[in-house]
Amino acid sequence: MSHPIITLANDVAALLNATTFTQSFTATRVYVPRFNTESGSDVQVQVVPSSDLEGDGSGGYDARQQTIQVGIFKRLVSLVADEREEIDAMMDLCEEVRETLNRVRVGDTYNAVCASVTHEPIYSLEDIDERRVFLTVMSFVYVVDVEV
């Protein structure tokens, strides 16, 4: 039996991979996000288990709040003067990911539902300006019923 947050992170990655987005990617579950800056202009998505807080439950279940972070990365290929369209497309992708996961039950037992999303900052200004990469991290808090 694996830790419930590992199961949840795997379920989130699987849901992202089963969904069609305007930009293609394969989400991977990792413990330490490491984006390949040499991968050209491919979108990279990494799913990271982040926190696990226990709460009160009932009927043989504990209600946990588990946070999954989703990092989205892409090297920008356009010139600085033309970057707006490329960044707009990445912001649209972030909204698609948010809509895919927010308020949605995941997993084989559907015992986890996303209760809140934090997306702040919405992108890393320093990475765009200094490294020419789009990087953002969204945190999804799931309420999970775990059998005790």
How many helix segments? Answer: 3
Unreliable segments (pLDDT under 50, ≥5 consecutive)? none
Count the domains: 1
* Mean pLDDT over the full residue set: 90
- Note the main sheet: 6 strands, mixed
The strand line-up of the biggest sheet is 1-2-3-6-5-4
CATH fold-level topology: Alpha-Beta Plaits
What share of the residues does DSSP label as strand, in percent? 35-45%
Q: Examine the secondary-structure arrangement and name the CATH architecture.
A: 2-Layer Sandwich
Query: Would you list the SSEs in sequence order as H and E?
Result: HEEEHEEHE
- Relative helix content: 25-40%
Radius of gyration: 16 Å
Shape: elongated
The CATH class designation is Alpha Beta
Number of strands: 6
Category by helix and strand content: alpha+beta
Distance between the termini: 13 Å
Which homologous superfamily in CATH is the superfamily? Phage minor tail protein U
Protein model, in words:
This protein has helices at 4-18, 83-101, 125-131; strands at residues 27-29, 44-55, 61-75, 105-106, 112-118, 133-147. The chain is built from three helices and six strands. It has a single domain, classed as Alpha-Beta Plaits, CATH 3.30.70.1700. With 148 residues, it is an alpha+beta fold. The chain is 28% helix and 36% strand. The model has no long low-confidence stretch (mean pLDDT 90). It has a six-stranded mixed β-sheet, with helices on both faces.
